[in-house]
Every structure is written in structure tokens, then in C-alpha cells.
What does this fold into?
Amino acid sequence: MTKVVVSELRKHEKYERLVAAAKRLPPLPAAVAHPCDETSLRGALEAAEANLIIPILVGPKNKILDVARSLGISVEDFELVDVPHSQAAADKAVELVRAGRAELLMKGSLHSDELLGAVTKRETGLRTSRRISHVFVMDVPTHPQTLFITDAAVNIAPDLTAKRDIIQNAIDLYVGLGLGTPKVAILSAVETVNPSIPSTIDAAALCKMADRGQITGGELDGPLAFDNAISSEAARIKGIKSAVAGRAQILVAPDLEAGNMLAKNLTFISKADAAGIVLGARVPIILTSRADNVRTRMASSAVAMLLAHSRRANQPIRT
It folds into this structure.
């Protein structure tokens, strides 16, 4: 049996290309909500050092300064907005975006629900007509293409309307990053429509919605099981004739549980990195995890920054 060996030099080349493309563009101001621990503060400052963002640090001033001192780093070159606690930091960071002072929003050490709660407030948030959703942009060392997995972090049990927005958000991100026209696989446990499995009914309906122009910019197929979505050989064996099967770049999970388990399986078993971004708001939201490494944090910032620049120019950014 032949052992597959992944070159260390090429292991994360997909992320490296994204970061390199972002570095060719000017950095954008990012409101960083409550960077009050080592991971979140370092993440913001490392993205700034890489010339990806200009951080505006929003949180309890003394707490941020204490963390910086404990790490032996300086934040004196960056604006620091003093607020008393994490919820106030979320609200203030959103306010900075609404005022046009920041073009990106970055999660610090507060809970995701606190930040997204501020984002989704009807009167003072960053809502648009689109449902907010999350995309993992995954660099899987053993897979030739970047995989987009959605939604694994925000929408728990999306209905058909929510899934339409989830798919459109992911397509718009893929196109905005200059990656071309994506092939979108709507995942289920099987690749045939089965009334006993509701996600197969949704998948079929979503494909017809794309045929009718209700979802645009990508090629859709579903239901597809995970194996025949990404493996041409699995699709061939099962006799699936499709432009998407075996070539999918966007994987749409039936619900949050399935998406989250899929992303974490790839992370912990296949050693993939998972950059996280929230879409559907007025600006891209960098949603990092305490477990993220430096490379993943850089990629999350790069993806958000590239998308923001593409919206500025109203055209895809070449990556």
C-alpha cells in the first residue's frame, strides 16, 4: 500500500496564496472587539504586522494594557477605545463600523454570541437583507483545492430560505476572492431524493431555485453525499453524472451540527486549517477561535480583507 506524503513546503500553499494576495493591497481598519487575552491580542497585532489590518482595539483599556505588558508587546501605535466590558466592546466595535471608521470587524476574547448579538440588532447593528452565515475556508493538505464549508457556526437548523442565503453568501465570497465560478455541493447522507430525509428535499429545491435565478454565480448540485461531492472516483462508481460531483469547492451542510463535525474532522484528522469568516452583514466579520494557530488567523484576516477590497472595487480580487 502506497503511503501518501504531503510536502511540508506545499502543505498550506492555498493559505499562503491568499495571504500573499492580501499583502499586495493596502491594509484596512478593523474594529477588534475585546482583545483581552493573549490569543486575541496577538492575533490582531500579528495581522497588523503582516500589513493586513489596522486594528482599533475596543475593550477595557487597563485589561488590554495588562495583557500587552504580560506578553512584552506594545500597543501604543494603535488606537485603543476604552469601554467597561465585553458587551460594551461588541456594541462599540459595531458602532465604529456603522460610523465608517472600520471596514472589518474582528472577534476578540468575548463569546461569539455577544458579538453577533450586537451585529444583528435591528436598529444599531449591521444587518442587511441577507441572512448572516459562517464559512470555513479550509486548507486541507491532502486535497488539491480550497474547500468552503458552510454553515458550521451560526445557523443551527436553517430552513430553505436561510439555506438560499447561506449558499449565496458562500458563492459571493468565492467569486469575490477571484477564484472563479464555484461548484457547490448540497450535502446529505445520500445522493438521491428521499422524502424520509428532509435535507434531500431541500437540496433538490435549492438546485431548482438556482435554475430559476434565485441563487446566482455558482453551479449547484444535490443532494450529494460527502464522498461523491469531493471524490471523482466515488462519483464514477455510483454512476453520478454531474459537473459538480467529485469537483465541489463549496460544501453546504444540512445543519450546523453536520457542518461543525465535518470541519473539525478535517481539522483534527486531516490536519486542515480552518479560517473563519461571517458574511451577510455590512462588512466581513473575522471570527477566530482560541484554538486557531497563527497561519489560520492570518488567513482569516486575509480572506476578510480581500473580500472588503473586492466590494470596494465592485469586482473580484485576483488571487
